[in-house]
Write a structure and sequence with these properties.
Elements lengths: L1 H28 L2 H30 L6 H6 L6 H10 L1 H23 L4 H25 L27 H11 L1 H13 L5 H32 L9 H26 L3 H24 L14 H21 L1 H4 L11 H33 L7 H21 L10 H24 L6 H30 L5 H11 L1 H25 L2 E7 L4 E4 L2 E12 L3 E12 L2 E13 L4 E5 L1 E5 L4 E10 L5 E8 L3 H18 L3 H14 L6
Antiparallel strand pairs: 1-9, 2-3, 3-4, 4-5, 5-6, 7-8, 8-9
Helix pairs in contact: 1-2, 1-6, 2-4, 2-5, 2-6, 4-5, 5-6, 5-7, 6-8, 7-9, 8-9, 8-11, 9-10, 9-20, 10-11, 10-14, 11-12, 14-15, 15-17, 16-17, 17-18, 17-19, 18-19, 19-20
């Protein structure tokens, strides 16, 4: 079996190298049959990688500890679901999954676009193949998942924090997001290489970019919830370098998805859009480097390995080649259209882009500076939470406000009268919200108050847009208000799906502001029968129990919960002692109030031999709005991604206007 896995990966490497060389020659010389052969080689590489992946999954399920990777990441006692998740739970397996997704995306993108964008696809294939060549080389020659050893009696098991249901979905979603950004990158470079810098590469990749962006967003929220319920520190985002590594390409992709609308509508920002695509893809590679190289200390990262220099070299070569192509094609990228007014929709989107990019670069510097400091000066300097929180407020709050302004301002130039008319009601709602919050005593946290006020403004603009559009559809003959609303969504899924996504960001902002600015904390060492008061709750320590599961010993402290005169039942918090892994994990207790969105969060920090427990307790207002935001974000993304026949006809007509071969 390991020989089959290695052979499949060697064949994959040969196929993608052939696709790279043959595809480049075919594109340069205009050889159609050779180009078709290169495309078929890229497609075949997906199936050979699938064979290698099947071998690894089979070895995991059979607990074949002669595979070094299987012995290092699993054990006989590990539940089946986590045994499968070990595929991406270790370094070599996760790189194989990267390659599988990459060849799969390449196959799908080529097959879906090669008829109507044939002259572009011939250049896209060698770009895809170049990226695949690097990853295939890494899993063949540097970090193979098919290394073997004398089989031990049992494996080393899995890190306890990874034995959580969220780990079944969080890493694959991030990989889908990282790898998905290869598609717009490959098409952008294909357009640069071919000199065909019209809108076809945007049309071909918009949904791919949306898909990758959605996967990254949902993956990060699942990761935040995993950290909240599993890591046991009372939070959901710690500005960890590897957490930031996933956030940065998402921010760059967000900027691209906004600015691409300006290029489609006004023909502007062509250079900017290409640079954003290059940045997003480069940051996805950088995120993979941070996680896989062990260059940073993180709960998410792997130990030191030999792949770090290879990744750094590949990132450097990729950026150098891409920027050289942009410089070469600058005359073709220049836009004939100029910004007419600083008060217009395109200007608002440009401000939005600049803030997103500024936040992205501030986070990047926060990640890179400690590494540079240690490498150059020998001093390990860490930029703490205050650094990131400062820039989140400085750039995030204006971004929140622009989210309500940008979609409603007129294109080209907006008059003062139109601005007053458009934003009168949202402004009044925002001011009223801020005033009420001040009266209620919420002014202790100025950033929180501003976030709530801006969120009210954006929420009002979204409601106003939906109400205005639904009323217009009803006036045009819809039989009911529900029918008018459905018709409105169906006729412009991209626009109104975007509004739903904006609503999710409002919920996220309110949830973050509430849970961080207005939370309560208390801690105490309790013996049985003693109590602790925090945030209107009283917790009484009742008992301490121990129970055995398949691969761990569970120790749980039971607390009774009261709020005023109301008995709210009990809550358990404690620790798991894993036998095979020889590690102990915190297992927090959480009681969620679905009506208010508030969480009571309990950590049993230390359990003594005499049965006394040191508890740390948080009350986090509105934190559940963060998880609700994830569901709303997914809904809005699905609406935007859903096939739209009206839009498709419009895109076909636009493609015909730029003269692709299918319309000649």
């Amino acid at each position: 079996m390991p020989e089959l896995g290695r052979a499949a990966l060697v064949v994959t490497l040969g196929l993608v190298v052939y696709a790279l060389v043959a595809g480049a020659v075919a594109a340069h010389l205009g050889r159609r049959r050779l180009a078709q052969s290169a495309q078929n080689a890229l497609i075949a590489a997906f199936f050979t990688t699938l064979v290698a992946s099947g071998v690894l999954v089979a070895a995991l399920l059979r607990h074949d500890f002669s595979f070094t990777y299987v012995a290092r990441t699993t054990s006989e006692a590990l539940p089946t679901a986590y045994t499968i998740s070990a595929f991406w739970g270790g370094q070599e397996g996760s790189l194989l999954l990267w390659l599988l997704f990459l060849t799969g995306f390449g196959t799908a993108a080529v097959r879906l676009n090669r008829r109507w964008a044939r002259d572009l696809i011939v250049w896209v294939v060698p770009v895809f193949a170049a990226v695949a060549t690097f990853f295939a080389f890494v899993v063949v020659a540097v970090a193979s998942p098919f290394a073997t050893q004398a089989a031990p009696a049992d494996g080393a098991g899995m890190t306890p924090s990874l034995q959580n249901p969220y780990m079944l979905a969080h890493p694959p979603l991030l990989y889908l997001g990282y790898v998905g950004l290869t598609v717009p990158f490959a098409f952008a470079l294909g357009a640069l290489l071919s000199g065909r810098l019209d809108e076809r590469w945007l049309i071909a990749t918009r949904r791919w970019t949306l898909f990758a962006w959605t996967a990254l967003g949902i993956g990060q929220l699942l990761g935040a919830h995993w950290a909240y319920v599993e890591v046991g520190w009372g939070g959901y985002y710690a500005w960890d370098p590897v957490e930031n590594a996933a956030l940065m390409p998402w921010l760059a992709a967000t900027a691209f998805l906004h600015s691409v609308m300006i290029q489609e509508k006004r023909g502007m920002l062509r250079v900017w859009n290409v640079l954003l695509v290059i940045l997003a893809f480069s940051l996805s590679l950088f995120g993979t480097f941070l996680t896989r190289s062990g260059v940073v200390n993180s709960i998410h990262s792997f130990t030191q390995s030999s792949i770090g220099p290879w990744f750094l070299a590949f990132i450097g070569v990729t950026m150098a080649v891409a920027l050289a192509l942009v410089f070469w094609r600058l005359p073709l990228l220049r836009s004939p259209t100029k910004l007419e007014s600083p008060v217009s929709r395109e200007a608002a989107f440009l401000y939005n882009n600049l803030l997103l990019l500024a936040l992205c670069l501030a986070i990047l510097w926060g990640v890179v500076y400690p590494m540079l400091s240690e490498a150059i000066r020998g001093e390990a300097v860490v930029l703490g939470r205050s650094y990131y929180d400062f820039f989140l407020r400085a750039f995030g709050l204006p971004l929140l406000l622009l989210m309500g302004i940008g979609p409603l301002i007129a294109w080209r130039r907006a008059s003062l009268g139109s601005l007053l008319t458009t934003f009168k009601w949202p402004t009044l709602v925002a001011l009223a919200t801020g005033g009420v919050l001040l009266v209620l005593g919420a002014g202790a946290s100025v950033p929180g108050l501003v976030a709530y006020t801006f969120s009210a403004f954006v929420g009002a603009t979204i409601v106003m847009e939906f109400a205005r559009g639904t009323r217009a559809r009803k006036a045009l003959g819809a039989t009911s208000w529900l029918g008018a609303f459905s018709s409105l969504m169906a006729r412009n899924r991209r626009r109104y799906g975007g509004y739903v996504v904006h609503a999710s960001i409002v919920l996220l902002a309110v949830g973050i502001a509430g849970s961080s600015a207005f939370d309560s904390v208390a801690e105490a060492k309790l013996r049985r029968g003693e109590s602790l008061a925090v945030g209107g709750y009283t917790l009484v320590y009742k008992s301490l129990d121990e129970r055995q599961t398949a691969n761990a010993t569970e120790i749980r402290a039971t607390l009774g919960i009261n709020r005023g005169n109301d008995d709210l039942g009990t809550l358990e918090a404690g620790k798991n002692a894993y036998t095979i892994e020889r590690q102990v994990s915190n297992e927090v207790g959480i009681r969620s109030d679905k009506l208010t969105g508030e969480d009571l969060f309990v950590i049993a920090e230390q359990i003594d031999a005499d049965g006394s427990v040191y508890f740390r307790v948080f009350v986090k207002p509105l934190v559940n709005l963060i998880w609700l935001a994830g569901l709303v974000f997914l809904l809005g993304s699905l609406i935007t991604l859903w096939p739209d026949r009206i839009e498709q006809r419009r895109l076909v007509a636009r493609a015909a206007a730029v003269g692709h071969p299918a319309t000649r």
